[in-house]
Amino acid sequence: MKVLPIVALGAAALVLSGCPINGGGTYTVGGTVTGLSGSGLTLLLNGGDSLSFSASGTFVFGTKLDNSAAYSVTVMTQPSSPTQTCTVRNGTGAINKASIGNVIVACTQTGRFAYVANRQSNSISGFAIDPTGGGLVPLSGSPFASNGTTPTALTVDPNGQFLYVANNGSNTVSAYSIGATGQLTAVGLPTATGTGPGAVSVDPTDHFLYVANLTANTVSAFAINAGALTPVVDSPFSVGAEPASLAIDPNGNFLYVTNFNGNTVSVFLIDPASGMLSTVSGSPFGTGAGPVSIAIDPTDAFAFVANNSDKTLASYALNATTGALTPSGSPLSAGTNVEALTVDPTGSYVFAANAQGPNQVATFVITPSSGVLTESSTSAAGSLPIAVAIDPSGQFLYAVNFNSNDVSAYTLSATGALTPVAGSPFAVGTQPHAIAID
User: Fold this and answer.
1) Which residues are bridge partners to 48 per DSSP?
2) Which residue from 340, 363, 382 is spatially nearest to 199, judged by alpha carbons?
3) CA 136, CA 134: separation in Å to the nearest integer?
4) Domain membership of residue 66 as a residue range
């Protein structure tokens, strides 16, 4: 059959083939592909229309659907050069008098680089990740000088092109482009935030960036354009007392903010067109004392909160439609002042830094039906593990040790058990506070 042209928005290279479905309809289906490194990805709409991609970007299927028509976007072939796994979010539903533009296709592979924010050194340590063993090899030029003071939090955008760093001392957020070999290059000058920025997150479509301002009790929101940041209308947005951490659900619909001194989680609906935030019904939701970290499982069914002051871990059922949080059983004792949480890519385990005893990383099994956590094992870390991250493939876990100025690295087994990798721990700068994996 003749290949037809397709309307393409953004940088993705697309080819449309197959027969149109409901060709006389009015509404289109599209979204965003992120993290694609090569070729081989093909998507299907309702099992017929196909789009092939060679780069990340936005897309629209050529077929137009009638109102009330069902739509389903699926992966026909996964990328093979290099091998990646792409997952579809917001891919099914029914047309409701509007075109669909929020389908998210996130592509991942084994992590390439790791970056650590060193608060006292005013630097960023950069490493190449050994794809076989998980070891960290310092990048040429590392540590990289920060162009803000007291870098405290960082994140890599979903396409792996930019690193964003929240500078707690200078009340700014910096953007760095990530080179082919992991080197960092500043993108313009740092952008002003509120006072005391301490957490940063990018939405799954790579369109918006959010910064939690601990001292100002606000969240700053920015639109992203090739790494450059422009404040969103009405930003900053008020939250509770001392916002300490951020998480965005994997469908990109809601922003979750833990308020350390307010003992709550604020939940906001993200406007997909503008990035503006609006409070959801029932927000803020109560937590234990000193909520310092929040993690959301990849199935979008549960959220987990580390309550630092009362030494507990709390589980919540997450309503993927409204964003609301409902406690799942009683909080679990963490044994000590837990500092940070992360969930593995399969949604099977929660890993908690400094839990079940000082200077440890603890593994907890997630009960699929309720989200309730059960302790599984513990692994020794350095002095005061304050942040944890898992590479996108789920093979390796890294814990940042604030007092011993190093990073503990582990292989992650199918049972959630952690085994130190050869050469661990790896030295970083002074007072490392956060880690991000590209």
Assistant:
1) none
2) 340
3) 7
4) 14-108
